[in-house]
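Entry 14. Structure prediction run on the chain below.
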Amino acid sequence: MTSQRRVKKAVTCISALLPVRDGCLHFFHKSVKDWLTDKSCYGEHDFTVDEGKGHEILFNLCISELDARKEKGVYDTQFNNSERYAFQHGVQHMFEADKSRTFCFLWRTWSPFMPNFM
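Output returned:
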């Protein structure tokens, strides 16, 4: 089974708890997030999530999205939903995934986009 298919199957199983709105997953209630990420319950149910690993995956997806945008050029352009998400949340995912990332990495990755926000 492909990873995309596994994700769709998992989302379908818990869609009442994680509704999809505007193409994004949302938590029905904060207690759902707590239940999924509670380390004391790790492995006790099929839906336990490693929050750090999730942030790492999302951070890497954000970087891929922004790298692709850099290759296309960044000036005088409209950003799609994935690119906007990467701008808005990529740094947070980076810090949540690995607190030891450096400013140099941030600057190298994000500085080409800065003129669009000034």
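The two ends are 45 Å apart (CA to CA).
Filed with the rest of this week's runs.
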